[in-house]
Amino acid sequence: MDVTLLEATEDPERVICTAARNDYMSGFVGDQSFEEVMASIDGEGIEEKQETLIGHLLSHGHFGPFEHPQLTIAVKGISRACMAQLTRHRHVSFDVQSMRYVAFDDVDPAEVRNGEMVVVPPSASDPNWIGRNQKSGAVDEETVRERERVFTESVSRSVEEYQELLELGMAPEDARFVLPIGTEVNLVMSMNARMLMHVADMRAAADSQWEIRELTEEVLDIAADWCPITFAYYDEHMKGRKNRLAP
Ligand SMILES: Cc1cc2nc3c(=O)[nH]c(=O)nc-3n(C[C@H](O)[C@H](O)[C@H](O)COP(=O)(O)OP(=O)(O)OC[C@H]3O[C@@H](n4cnc5c(N)ncnc54)[C@H](O)[C@@H]3O)c2cc1C
Predict the structure, then answer these.
(1) 155 is in which domain, residue-wise?
(2) Residues 118 and 55 grouped into a single domain
(3) Residues with Cβ < 8 Å from 171, sequence gap 6 or more?
(4) Do residues 159 and 192 share a domain?
(5) 99 labeled binding residue
(6) pLDDT per residue as tens digits for the range 137-186
């Protein structure tokens, strides 16, 4: 997969702090400099003051201010299974590559055997990989070779048959029914910092599937550069917390 930042709110932590200070000030934040807005917060310089306030907000569950900054990310080559998990999050906005308007008629089915077009899960080639609800534990090399053969033959045959249906004049929107759920998709998604923390609570957790966990970790790396105080705090104090009903 490829995860790329497209756009993000400039200076997100200034936005978070200004919005939060608005709640507790008699004056109007729109009339004051950021230094004035932050004057009563503990800390030597402006960065230390932001650390104090952001830490306070997150530790007290005051998450509203984190809804103001937003980021937009492009994701390439996740499976449609992963997309189905991701798009359950209702406060994230998505644009998903269409299989009605995009026909994968130029993919060489032989290349599908090498990992093109369909995501290959690590369990297809790693004998020690243990997934959720797996019937057995680690397996020997011979078994995993057989797994890889069955998987590879199945997905490349699906792509061949999909292309055959296109050649027989079937619309891509119907021919796609024979493609595997591991078929790759590209998408663009936008969410705010609060939602990102919620998605990470659920999808970076150990009980999530490896693919969405990997994607979430990549998004968290982007978030750590974009909104550093918030996501350093999240990483240190909140990540891996027990799932809750609400963020
Ligand atoms: C490990 C794992 C396994 C899963 N297995 C399954 C499964 O087998 N089948 C399945 O269908 N789903 C499954 N899910 C998806 C899961 O049930 C949620 O639908 C998904 O993670 C979206 O998260 P969310 O419910 O927090 O909602 P989000 O859409 O992310 O919304 C964020 C928060 O907003 C609030 N909210 C949003 N909409 C409403 C609403 N209409 N009413 C009240 N509050 C709302 C809630 O507090 C919610 O937590 C699984 C998720 C995980 C992490």
Answers:
(1) 106-178
(2) no
(3) 100
(4) no
(5) yes
(6) 888 889 999 999 999 999 999 999 999 999 999 999 999 999 999 999 99
127 close to 143: Cβ distance less than 8 angstroms: yes
Is the same domain home to 112 and 174?
yes
Residues 96-140: pLDDT tens digits? 999 999 988 889 988 999 999 999 999 888 888 888 877 778 888
The pLDDT value given to residue 244: 64
pTM, whole model, 2 decimals? 0.94
Looking at residue 167, its pLDDT comes to: 96
CA triplet 80, 82, 85: central angle to 5 degrees? 110
Q: Is 193 assigned to a binding site?
A: yes
Q: Are residues 173 and 193 in the same domain?
A: no
Answer yes or no: is 203 a known binding residue.
Answer: yes
In SS3 terms, 39-79 reads as CCCCCCCHHHHHHHHHHHHHHCCCCHHHHCCEEEEEEEEEE
Q: Indicate if 172 and 191 belong to the same structural domain.
A: no
How far, in Å, is the centroid of ligand 1 from the Cα of 85? Answer: 9
> Active-site residue numbers?
203
| 19 domain-assigned | yes
| Number of domains the chain is built from | 2
Ligand 1 pocket test: pick from 63, 66, 87, 89 the residue with the most ligand atoms within 8 Å of its Cβ.
Answer: 89
Q: Could you tell which of 66, 85, 92 is best to mutate to test the pocket of ligand 1, judged by most ligand atoms within 8 Å of the CB?
A: 85
Q: Which residues line ligand 1 (CB under 6 A)?
A: 88-91, 198, 202, 207-208, 245-246
